[in-house]
Amino acid sequence: MKETINFKLNGKSTRLTVDGERMLLWVLRTDLDLTGTKFGCGISACGACTVLVDNEAVRSCQFPMKYVNGKEVITIEGLAKNGDLHPLQKAFREHDALQCGFCTPGMILTAYSLLLKNPNPSRDEIIDGMNDNLCRCGAHNRIIQAIETTSKK
Amino acid sequence: MIEDKYIGEEFIDIISSQPFNRREFMKKTGGAIIVLFTLGDISALEGMEPQRRGRPEDINAYFRIEATGRITCLVGKVELGQGAITALAQMAADELDVSMESIDMVMGDTDICPWDSGTWGSQTIRFTGPVLREAAAKTRAVLIEIAAEQLKVPIERLTAKNGVIFEESNSDNRITYSQLAKGKIIERRVKGKVDLKNVSEFNIMGKPFLRVDSHEKVTGKAKYAGDIRLPGMLYAKILRPPSHDAKLKSVDVSGVKNLEGVTLVQEDDLIAVLHNNPDNAEAALSKIKTQYDSPEAQFDDKTIHEHLLNSAESRRVVDEKGDIKNGEKLADISTEETYFDNYFAHATIETHTALANIEGDKATVWVSTQGPFVIKDQIAEAIGFPSEKVRVITPFVGGGFGGKSPGRQALEAAKLAKITGKPVQVAWTRAEEFFYDTYRPAAVIKIKSGTTKSGDITFFDYNVYYAGTRGAELFYEIPNYALVSLGGRSAHPFATGAWRAPGNSTNTFARECQIDIMASKAGIDPVEFRLKHIKDKRVRNALEAAADKFGWSPKKTPSGRGWGVAMGTDVGSYVAHIAEVEVDKNTGRVQVKRIVCAQEMGIVINPQGATIQIEGCINMGLGYALTEEMRYRGGEIFNTNFDTYEITRFSMTPKIETVIVDNKETSPQGGGEPAIICMGGVIANAVYDAIGARVFQLPITPERIKEAMKRG
Ligand code: FES
Ligand code: FES
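Output (structure tokens, whole complex):
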């Protein structure tokens, strides 16, 4: 059933008429051409599709559009401000915390919401917070370092 | 450095029948120098059969020097995450004498990049490296030649540094590469010889560089095959069988016929639904009703090894030394063991994806692939196009590890684009990815070996079933030795293929466990025992560097410390790993606390990239060592997603320390795969050292550990 959904997307008011049951991931990638959000599993098991909804990391592959109404969505494309990378993005670059980069948007946004809740996480808390985000290339230790560096700033 | 005879008469201005698009690429910029090569122009390709095979005799450009100061570097390799994009740029920049920042890499585009065999086997630095370096050095020589004409100075008096060519005795008489290109298109063909830089002359090579593609990747701007959008494109979902041996008995597509916006394709065994939203296409697919016939499964994940042993019909002695019988007589302590390896999925986070667009007689296909030139020919065949009418473009690839060498999804997309007349994307679901993966093969290894009382190995009789012998070559000094490969036609229930260092992780696991068992029985520390049997300096250096970094102190096993060692060789490099683990005896759970890896890989182009490949291998390898386990019955695969197929998580990541062993005498060797090969062996050995129980099968799961403890 099509419904009109009003929300803020990367700082801009957005209005869409879509089937409210469709998942945010596909609407972002297909209708809105924001392809930085990735598909990895479709069952909330990998974290590649993570975006922020009201600053909370959610798995967009299982997040229906109808729940987006009235919310604020931030995707990886919306993290840098006026061309200035977010400190997490900078730290990921400085630590080479990525290889193929396919898990990276989801990693950065999961870390973003983790640091909002807990600005000074211990290593174990970082591992805990990131544990359901998968990386096949094995960038784990560098991702942890990048998050540690950001939290210390 | 540049031989005199090379300059002058050897440049040929080009008059050739280039394929149209290549010419187009070269012409489209305002002001550029393009240096052209044919096959014979690159001496580094001599004797490099795999690199030459299939390479067309046409004219290629590796570089385009723009009037803007940018330099485009074209290579047929692709960027999978392994960092070739950075290391290749380093080699190009160094030999061209320009800064890293001025290089733009264009990779894996079959219309404009030089032919390439495929990005696998850790070959980029080893084999493409010398070719690219030579092309860069020759391009630099061409630039000097053009500068000589413009500055009216003989070539011998000119030199190039940081993108500027100047007279050695009068550096004010100078011209930049970009000035040379200004306002004109110069195409020059090169021949002759140039010397490549010695290690001591490296400015950019050999220094650690961060990834050059990270800005795009942290901002979401990096494009992968699934991110390409074309007007009017459709997303396809294809009907898949429930099992590899299932036959379609009946199909009822009436449920999708009247769905809004859905296109149904039914041609031979290709049944697909297409929609302008991928999720709607997927929903439509579920409305197709099917019945399949499946034969009774003959074996499953529990009985596979028995099946493999029974199926082996050929036996090949690959290597032999001395006399096994004699060695058996000399042995005081004998060890006979059987090791088992399972199927492992590549499980890249990006699934196989392609977008095909056919316009007139030309097909363009964006593919997540490791072999763009191979896939191009396969696509051409699949849709009945001549190969030169197919262009494969490889955007960033979200991981490969061997799994993206096959490109079935590209053929599917191309066929569907041809049938529907629209651009078509095929992006596999996770279930399709598991179903069509070309798994690392299950295997069995039987080893019989023996030592004297004082711990000298007298014989080593090695028999490997279905894993091949990569990595099985012996670097230990053993007088009586046999390496036998058994197998034959595939006995696997589904496709198998190359999985990061194919066969080597299996062989290294078995050999390194066996060596450890012998050391333990002889009452000798496992590092000492290994060193006692190693003469080769490169191998020794790797092991000693690892032991040193770890702070190893000798003790016979099991020491209760949970320390383990394993070593091996792959793609010309040597690695030694030492692990420290903790084993919970009640649950059988293993936590790897720390891993040290020393890698001897010859001259290193990018120490940063090499280090990250080692770390990546260690992290990825933890999965096959500890948690990844395929479940199946016959051709039916039960793992359809990451909820049941457990790859490495953050909580499994140990402290990782790496050493790259210095060796400036050996040319650069492979770095993408070696450090994964020891992961099974090093953890099995550390677990044994911790609890005195040994697991002979990968992965080393809590159940297997508890079983091993019961066996005692
Ligand atoms: S795609 Fe959403 S969690 Fe994997
Ligand atoms: S960087 Fe490739 S999956 Fe994480």
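Chain A touches chain B through 58 residues (CB under 8 Å).
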